[in-house]
Amino acid sequence: MKAARFSRFGGPEVLEIVDLPDPHPGPGEVRIAVRGAGVNASDWKKRQGLMDPELPQTLGYEAAGIVDELGAGVTDVAVGDRVFGASPYGAAQAELAALSSYSPIPASLDFDAAAALPAAVETAARALDQLGVESGSTVFINGASGSVGSAAVQLAVARGARVIGTGSPSTHDLLRSLGAEPVAYGVGMADRVRALAPDGVGLALDVAGSGVLPDLIDLVGGPEFVITIADFAGAQQYGVRFSRGDSGRAIYALAQIGDLIESGRFSLPVGQTFPLTDIAEAHRVGEEGLVRGKLVLLID
């Protein structure tokens, strides 16, 4: 099969499309003919050598496609079904991928939109779980307009929480449409939040990693009420929990998101798509950060 890989660390130019052996699903897994694979910031961090030291490395932890092989014990889907999900092997940006967690693609979604879901939905649900967001909570989300941020807004609203979120002025209409009360980031942000919620904000989620953890701690009354998914150094410095998958993943959210999508209560826009052969360009666009919405690779 064709797959994305790099054999040395560096810029997007180190990425290549190579022939690799076809994967086969283990017990409880399915293999899909990939039609779409999500691109995430972790991909270019891996490529830059900021995560895993070994070489060569493949890429991709989320994909959508058509089931073409079943692992032992799989009875909930059949060959030919459309599914999206997560692969633990970091090789989903390829023609074939084994998924350990999967769900049917909602009827209203194409493969590219489905491929955009797994990482953002799981990350957002996990962080909200760790914060204890529930009906009646008031939660502040720093970086609410990106893929993970907008997923967190919608999932928190679906739980019955009040959500206040930061975004640039151009995103405020979007945030309102998702159910959040928008505020501008930058100097005076905390005061703007207090003006919206004079009775206080109980919980805070940092998605943007923009150095605001001290402000968030002050807003909610202590580091134990703050979680970041983007500022590892700040989390260590200020005693804030850094949410990571190795402490348990919210895979259940993949099975639940379909109902929210089909009822019109959740959407995650695709910002731009690229053929697998243009993966280097996808990395360049992603690192520039100028495209709103998820980046997705398409495989014919």
What does this molecule look like?
By secondary structure, this protein is α/β, with parallel strands linked by helices. It has two domains: 2-116 and 269-298, Quinone Oxidoreductase, Chain A, domain 1, CATH 3.90.180.10; 121-247, Medium-chain alcohol dehydrogenases, catalytic domain (Quinone Oxidoreductase, Chain A, domain 1). It is 30% helix and 26% strand. It is built from ten helices and 16 strands. It has helices at residues 41-47, 111-115, 117-131, 147-158, 172-178, 189-196, 213-220, 232-238, 252-262, 279-288, and strands spanning 2-6, 15-19, 30-39, 57-58, 62-70, 82-86, 96-99, 101-104, 138-142, 162-166, 181-183, 203-206, 226-228, 241-242, 270-275, 294-298. β12 (203-206), α7 (213-220) and β13 form a beta-alpha-beta unit. It starts with a strand and ends with a strand. The model has no long low-confidence stretch (mean pLDDT 95).
